[in-house]
Amino acid sequence: MNQNDLLNLTYASLGQAREAMTGMLKERRRDYSLPAPLYNDPHMFRLDMEEIFQKEWLFVGMTSEIPSRGDYFTVEIGQNPVLIVRDADGSVNAFHNTCRHRGSRVCTEHRGKVANLVCPYHQWTYDLKGNLLFAGTEMGEGFDMKQHGLKKAHCKVGGGFIYICLGKEEPEGDFDEFLATLDEYMEPYDVENTKLAVESNMYEKANWKLVLENNRECYHCAGSHPELLNTLLEWDDTNDPRAPQDFLDHYARQAAAWDAEGIPHEHKSFGLRNRIVRMPLKEGTQVMTIDGQEGCTKLLGRIKNRELGSMRILHLPNSWNHMQSDHFIVFRVLPISAQESLVTTKWFVHKDAVEGVDYDPARLRQVWDATNDQDRVLGEENQRGINSVAYQPGPYSKTFEFGVINFMDWYTDTTLENLEK
Ligand code: 3BY
Ligand code: FES
Ligand code: FE
């Protein structure tokens, strides 16, 4: 089953799927993994796309990837090509990347720079605000250019993070509050003066929810992530109920230093969807490199202390992040089909840092390349086992997997709410 097969789902079968999904979500045993169709069935996938990925806020990238006027990158949200572009006034716009003539994708590259947005098919030309500027001379009398601008997607920025929403309306909730907190917590990093150092795109044969579930717990870390565990502490939060006293003491010492420097660190939650917390790394380590020592000679923004731990920023449904002293790492998950996902990881450094002098991209990416690949294998094995006729939902640990429980509660409640809208 690939993306194109999804388009062949009939209206009748989708209606039935909607009912089946509602039933499964209402009847599901809380604190248990989901029934198999929610992980492997193309109808359920299509509904995930409609109810979550086409209605909720999604993380797409960082503002410093498009530093100046006309810089853009493209992203595919399931069947929906989207383009993110820096406007002349410095703001960031998101458009559906589909031409208002006959629908061709307008920008066909992964990223680039343009003066205007020109469709490759018949050269209809749009400005950076999506207004149609030129449609040749063949469109005849009465053709209204104003009615044929690119369709906008909602787009908001906080602390350098760009989020889009493909829904007609923005979802209700406390998203603006989350963005304001991101501004505050990201201030020390001066994101506009960072640059993308290296990027990885990993294809994973697993449903997007399995990718997220895997990220939301560290139950699997000891068994799978030797490189990451050189620096990462397995506790998921500073208020993790399992955290022992020596962790709490280590945290208290680091937090005192952070407070003295005005580095925000306190846990902030916005429902189950968004969370920010700065977590210490293992004693004596600075960043998530293989030996825990510096990844880049230049510190980010106004940062002076190399031991800033990692500020973890969670955004459901599709992103987690690690913000450290000399580089930060952002993660984005995009569903491809019921059993395929794309995991993109990007490492950012100070914009004046020189590759090969101040940082080595191979060293920066080493730990998370290994970790991502280990997680890919776990996700793919998880998917294959779930596809078995013998699979039945199994129990999450309330202590080790509370992050997974939170994610599943968010997913269930949000999907049910959106299905009913
Ligand atoms: O570090 C992360 O992003 C997550 C949290 C715990 C397990 N996993 C590796
Ligand atoms: Fe874009 Fe024709 S489809 S100009
Ligand atoms: Fe992992």
From TrEMBL:
Top-level taxon of the source organism: Bacteria
GO molecular function: 2 iron, 2 sulfur cluster binding; iron ion binding; oxidoreductase activity
Keywords recorded for this protein, A-Z: 2Fe-2S, Iron, Iron-sulfur, Metal-binding, Oxidoreductase
Cofactor requirements of the protein: Fe cation
InterPro entries, per database record: Rieske_2Fe-2S, Rieske_2Fe-2S_sf, Ring_hydroxy_dOase_asu_C_dom, Rng_hydr_dOase-A
Domain Rieske: from-to ranges: 57-164
SUPFAM superfamilies (alphabetical): Bet v1-like (SSF55961), ISP domain (SSF50022)
CDD domains named among the record's database cross-references: RHO_alpha_C_GbcA-like, Rieske_RO_Alpha_N
Listed PANTHER family: CHOLINE MONOOXYGENASE, CHLOROPLASTIC
The protein's name: Rieske 2Fe-2S family protein
Organism: Marinobacterium lutimaris
Lineage: Bacteria, Pseudomonadati, Pseudomonadota, Gammaproteobacteria, Oceanospirillales
